[in-house]
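Bug: token stream looks shifted between consecutive jobs. Job 1:
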Amino acid sequence: MGSLERISKVFQSAEEIPFDDSSKIILMSDVHRGDGSWADDFSRNENLYFAALTHYFNEKFTYIELGDGDELWKYKKMSDILPVHKDTFLLLQKFYDDGRLYFLFGNHDMVKSNDKFLKNCFSRFYDDLDKKSAALFENIKIHEGLVLRYKATGQKILLIHGHQASIMDYTFWGVRRFLVRYFWKNLELFGLNDPTSTAKNYRKKDSIEKTLTEWVAREKHMLIAGHTHRPMYPDVDKPHYFNDGSCIHPHSITGIEITGGNITLVKWNVKTRDDGTLFIGREVLAGPRALKEFTGVDTAALFPKSFLGNCPYLMCHCY
């Protein structure tokens, strides 16, 4: 099965979530929560992430995580990750208990597609303070994809992690995990990056973005993904492929908000007030634009197939 067919299969089988102009949704991905060691890329941005999610929880947003929430290539067990980032998980639990949480799995947390893993490692956790097992995400379902349906227009927005566009990240993810866990993880200590990593290899990013953009042009549906760690926000007359970026950018995290019938690419980072004090603040990178503007464009006619690959005009480098 080719990459386009894999994506279409997810689209056809995905649970559909209707929303309207009163809905508030925040999309983030590639959090890569780890064990707190030097190899935990999330640790340096955890305060940014916690502040952003606290804001979204208080403002009644639904949080949708588009895969790679937990770094389960470098680390074998959720029990290595949960205690270190307990406050973050308890905040996510508040979203879940309030019916405002959806998780997708990506290539780095593909094991979440296994019901046995979820039951044993994600539904409950050992609370060191109370010295007993406690509920976390009991009976949770982790999705490969979701479809948001905008009631005002009938638009369907496919949400996936994006690894479906790469046979190495999708079919042979176990091989990649072995190499990262036992080879590249240790070499990163000496400043050597994994050349096969999508997030660190621009040729792989371009290839995956080409496939995702081709799917949008062929199927005439909006698509929001993560995986490449590269934020994307297209013009309305370009293929409607969006990317929420990641939560492990240097000194910032990015996400996509859907609220009031608009879509916005945002960044959270540390800012400085006039008096020199620091605070964590939100910044708009692109948008907002009305979702209604992203309808009725024949992207396949606008862009021949050979041109849909390297699309620098879609990139947002301002993170």
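Job 2, same session, no restart:
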Amino acid sequence: MQVSVPEPVVMDAWRSLLVGTHALIRSNRMHYSSGNQYDRLYQAEGCDALHALLWWGREVRPLAISQLDFTRKGLEFHQAGHKLQLMAHLRDYTRDDAFIREMRPRWEKEVRLIINSRTNAEGLFPREQYCGDIPTPVYSLNSNAKAWRALRDFAATLEAMGEHEEAQRLATVAAEFKQRILVAVAKSTRPAMPGFVPIALSGEEEPYETITGTKMGSYWNLMANYVLGTGILGEQRERGLLDYLQQHGGLVMGMTRSRPNVTFWTGPHSANPLYGTRYVLTLLRRDEPDRALVSFYGMLAQGFTRDTFIAGEGGSLTPLDAHGRLFYCPPNTAGNSHFLTMLRHLLVQDWDADDDGKPDTLRLAFATSQRWLEDGKEIKVERAPTAFGETSFSLRSRLNAGEVLAEFTPPARAPKQALLRVRVPDGWQVLSARAGERDLKLDAQGTVDVSALREKSALRFTVRKLN
């Protein structure tokens, strides 16, 4: 994929971050960092880097093998979820059924683990570590929700590969698993603070009035993002969790916050932006572009070293001494992928809108900065990988002439719905849209349905300046 937007710092960032991510690959292993204790493979963070590379059209199959082979005692269910999700995403983007079948001994082990381990009284997994840094064993919503989503999506993968009987078996288990999880969540939610969704189920975790007031609250903040990413909570509970994060100190400049133990490596007030990827993707799925852009620009403002775009697992919010802010164990591939994932989804989104495990909706330019379409500016995306094949589009602003001109090349496989949006600057309004001689229905956000366009097409949006 090639991306061109009229903001030099964004252009410098994505190119630098792709190069920096490739520089941290070691013998087909996606290492988390280099030259420090993180110079090795991690499951969640490594998979996030591979997902980002897939979205940018890069080869990840050799790297995926090392992720499948990796294990860490005490986090087996958490790892199984990430592994199966990676396989589903990889198949969606490569259509390489032969590779998925070659990996069968590896992913079958994870499928068996998920299906055969739901042995507690609630029909969920036995206790697992709260997270990698918190060894306390809990009935983990994080692990159960990840595994449910992975099983559901991988069932759809097998269905697409023609393995109908096994696909149906996994889908049936996943449907029942989801209901068990939701029952446990409902029992564990505190009426006094309904937006709080505990990671430790069965009443073992209380709400945090100020999320970063304690170490446990800080780690809850990291894990809650993963739960959001599964999409399991439903509209009301998901909205409540987003509100809770936004209103109880979970964010700074749109970046996920934590309060680590102060050591040589960490300061007292930190952001851990890489763990907010799923928070931002949830905002974008819900079509809340302005909040997502806060996170995007927060990362540029505070999440990287200035002009050199090096990320750490965390960074202090204020200077510690004359030498400036502290970064925790830079460089960081998951920090790189956090930004790359955000930028890709500002421009190109492919969603499973009907929640059946199969992507069905393509949305283009849904969350771009409105400044990118000031008069004379252009947004261009070429060969963007999607679950439907590669797509390209461009938007060229001629506001002073009363128009924005677009080109759209649809993917090879038609999604159920394809949408293109023109986000003009404040003070401007999109009035109408045409593709050739065909008038297109326009919504209040400047969005048109381009599902019927199956060849490369030119579109014209008429605009006016508001009084």
